[in-house]
Automatic annotation (TrEMBL):
Native source species: Sesamum radiatum
One GO term of the biological process aspect: proteolysis
Peptidase M16 N-terminal domain sequence ranges: 87-229
Protein name: Mitochondrial-processing peptidase subunit alpha
Domain Peptidase M16 C-terminal: 247-365
MF GO annotations: metal ion binding; metalloendopeptidase activity
């Protein structure tokens, strides 16, 4: 077929006379010396024009000097102001700066009268201040091509502003104004309360988020039981007065050194490696090509039980405490079996000799890979600096965490898993509970 098509094209070219044919022949000879052409060029009886080789430097182009063999990463510098405020900065080659303001403020500081206020405070970020209207704030951010975000968690509230380094003074000034001088206008609060209700309704479509909140409310009896997502019953109790009182109470730092969580660093890192070791994912995808395919839960559970749609380990580590467990999605009539499987898998990693060296080494390499890849993101680096300053008062070098990961042994994994099993068990379920007894 292709040969017939090429013949017809040549026949059409031939109808234009000897001059056109000669031009066609001459062009072919010249092009043949420089390029063989592509498939469609040959099909049409033509040849590709030549391109300069990329194996040789171009004329009159000055290349920058190559980087040395070893380049030290930027060092974090911490400056403490007379009022006690700590400023942590790190130089990066990126032309964009990420400025963050991190506060010891979250749902663990909420009182019964202010449940859900952290969720509302996150929504009220970068709204009107005593010095600027919301419209002016938006216009100033747009004028420099900036991007702002706010995120509330159980222990921290973060405000970040990204833009070109040239505009750092403007970024800092606007960020401080938005955090220190919020106006909490009644009409803006009412507007965000409506969006809060929409967030709550949308959360019912995310069973994983609901289960995580249920685990916290059941597993803890103190402030960590406070819901991060506002409850529908609490929305009607929230207003600008509640916001003002919460900000006045919580926007300063109090530190109590208690055992557990990130303050017990090695145990927290072992839990992270244990999560990687157990792994898991969905029956269709583990999150990307090859991710988690050789983890224990994927090989021993998802590959063996088609009734299970997803089965994965999770952890939530805070400054003073943490949670570790297994989250599963399965057919209702298989739920009780899935619970038994989860318990058996936790017992297995707590049993000495059940985790071999190959599995542990793979989990340790995956942990280090996840840490390093996450720190390639400018926003993650900014968040990491802020949260480490709040937790430790300084930023621990990256090499320290990688060294701790390398030093973890199979005995450490078994010992930590045994600690988990000796603590009170918490379980939450969402869906048809008739099959769970």
């Amino acid at each position: 077929m292709y040969r017939t098509a090429a013949s017809r094209v040549r026949a059409l070219k031939g109808q234009t006379g000897y001059r056109g044919s000669a031009r066609y022949a001459t062009t072919s000879v010249v092009a043949a010396k420089s390029s063989s052409g592509g498939f469609f060029s040959r099909l049409m009886g033509e040849q590709c024009s030549s391109l300069p080789s990329l194996n040789f430097p171009l004329k009159d182009v000055n290349l920058p000097p190559p980087l040395p063999d070893h380049v030290e990463p930027g060092q974090t510098r911490i400056t403490t102001l007379p009022n006690g405020l700590k400023i942590a900065s790190e130089m990066a080659a990126n032309p964009v700066a990420s400025v963050g303001l991190y506060v010891d403020c979250g749902s663990i500081y909420e009182r019964p009268a202010s449940y859900g206020v952290t969720h509302l405070l996150e929504r009220m970020a970068f709204k009107s201040t005593t010095n600027r209207s919301h419209l002016r704030i938006i216009r100033e951010i747009e004028a420099i091509g900036g991007n702002v975000t706010a995120l509330g968690s159980r222990e921290h509230m973060s405000y970040t502003y990204d833009a070109l380094k040239t505009y750092v003074p403007q970024m800092v000034e606007l960020l401080i104004d938005c955090v220190r001088n919020p106006a909490f206008l009644d009409w803006e609060v009412k507007e965000q309360l409506q969006k809060l209700s929409a967030d709550i309704n949308g959360s019912f479509r995310d069973p994983h988020q609901l289960l995580l909140e249920a685990i916290h409310s059941t597993g803890y009896s103190g402030p960590y039981a406070n819901a991060l997502l506002a409850l529908e019953s609490a929305v009607n109790c929230l207003n600008s007065t509640v916001l003002e009182e919460f900000v006045a109470i919580t926007h300063f730092a109090l530190a109590f050194e208690l055992p557990g969580g990130w303050l017990k660093e090695k145990d927290a890192i072992i839990l992270t490696v244990l999560q990687m070791l157990m792994g898991g994912g969905g029956s269709f995808s583990a999150g990307g090509p090859g991710k988690g395919m050789y983890s224990r839960l994927y090989l021993r559970v998802l590959n063996e039980h088609p009734q299970i749609q997803s089965f994965s380990a999770f952890n939530s580590i805070y400054n003073h405490t943490g949670l570790f467990g297994i989250q599963a999605t399965t057919e209702s009539n298989f739920a009780i079996n899935a619970i038994d499987i989860a318990v058996k898998e936790l017992i297995a990693v707590a049993t000495p000799g059940q985790v071999d060296k190959v599995q542990l080494d793979r989990a340790k390499e995956s942990t280090k890979s996840a840490i390093l890849m996450n720190l390639e993101s400018r926003m993650v680096v900014s968040e990491d600096i802020g949260k480490q300053i709040l937790t430790y008062g300084e930023r621990t070098p990256l090499g320290h965490f990688l060294k701790v990961v390398d030093e973890i042994t199979r005995q450490d994994i078994a010992k930590t898993a045994q600690k988990l099993l000796s603590s009170p068990l918490t379980m939450a379920s969402y869906g048809d509970g008739n099959y769970i007894s």
